[in-house]
Design goal:
The complex is a heterodimer of chains A (102) and B (403). Chain A is mostly helical and 102 residues long. Chain A has three helices and no strands. Chain A is flat. In chain B, strand 2, helix 8 and strand 3 form a beta-alpha-beta unit. In chain B, helix 4 crosses helix 6 and helix 6 packs across helix 9. Helices cover 46% and strands 12% of the residues of chain B. The chains are: A mainly alpha (102), B alpha/beta (403). At the A-B interface, helix 1 and helix 3 of A face helix 2 and helix 4 of B.
Chain lengths: 102, 403
Amino acid sequence: MADNSADKPTKDVKLPRSSKGARSRFFDDPAIDQIMTFLLELMAETNALRERADTIERLLDEKGTINRDEIEAYRPDAECEAERSAWSQAFIQRVMRFHEPD
Amino acid sequence: MVSTSDALFAHKNSGIPDIEELPHSNLEERGRQRFCSALRRFAIQEMPEMVRKDFDQRVAPAHKAKGELIGDAVAIEEVMKGEASYRFYSTLRYNAQEMCFQSVQEPIERALPEMIDVAKAAVQRNPAGGSLRLNPEMPIPPYVSQLDVHLTPGCFHNEWVEDDVAQGAVVSLGARVFSASMNHRSWGGVAKVVSRWLKHERPDFAPVRILDIGTSSAKNLMPYAEAFPDSEAHGVDVAAPLLRYGHAVAEHEGIAIHLSQQNAEALDFPEGHFDLIVSSFFFHEITVDATRNVLRECRRLLRPGGVMVHQELPATCLVDAWEDFFWNWDTEHNNEPNYTSFRAQDPAVLLEEAGFGPDENFAQLLPDIGTYPERAEAFGWDEPGRPRHGKGAWYVFGSSLPS
């Protein structure tokens, strides 16, 4: 992306990351609400890492040798998109293994 | 690489670039977005079944054994809110909601100056023949400004910079992440569903002017303009960033629509101006008093022979206790405080209060296009095997005026 900020009066905008209004609490101990956010963010990062590994493996299969730019530039085709979405759903199902009702 | 303003100058007589394609997510961001889509799907489609099973098999029998009646949504919430199944369902759904919007904010921040340039070019050139009319003096009603609706940080209306489109992008692209894995929800889906049903029910209906209230970025207005190409399509909303963004999308798509920043409780169009008035996902965001005002405005603006169709969440009186309980989650946890009180109103009463005739008023479930590609006709409320709203059907209420 070209750096054309010099000819633009607009400042860099930092959007707010939290919403106006009290955040809902679902557990008696608010630390559990916080831990759930940590867990889900960690799962999101794991998902992103898995996509990076999958990208590297696919490019290696295809080309034998690769560099960082190729990893960033890689755009999955429809079949790969579907496989990755299925992986993400299965990943959540594996981690979110709820106990059966007593 | 040439700057966006140079590129726009070079294409002065051609189309408007696609504003939705300007934010570029990197590999990490796309991985997180995919997770958010899958998490949202899991939280909204699979977890409710798990919670229901816990209620049916364990919680309800235990209360019934003690002789306690669990007859409505309030009673179900009372017995479920302390249960682990409901707490985990809620926390996953809540976090998924927050994460969907957060997952698109950084790419939008990086692309914002270019997006603003594109939206400004769309206003200056209007190659599709549409228009954008903003009113910076218009007060934002408190039911929009008091909370960030849908847990979208910045809500619909906030502007961070001149000519801002950021919230339009966050709402639009966040919702794309939100619904990516859900096969029965797609952009513009409601408008396609309603226009197909209208053409089936009224083959000769040819609206001259269409109005979409609470149009947001006009995603559910553009399909009407395409379904009725000889009509003039208007959309109103209180939020300027959504309207600027939607105008840029429409001018890129080559669809002429006329967007204006107005509060739907008091619009500046003359009496009897529209043949078709529509909305989608709108009334539950405003107070019940505002709903009554908007419906009276619809009555004033509808021409004899005109039709009004509002897609909404099914009223409490039209669903069972469990479904009622399920829908009301958003009231407290999705910053939509009017959700339960809107759904508690009988649509027939609201319509009659606004001056519509009981013989013309309706409340229907319409078949989703993706799930029912061959069926245009509404489901009967008692039809065996009919889907519920949000799972293959869309709830609408409305009326028409005699010619």
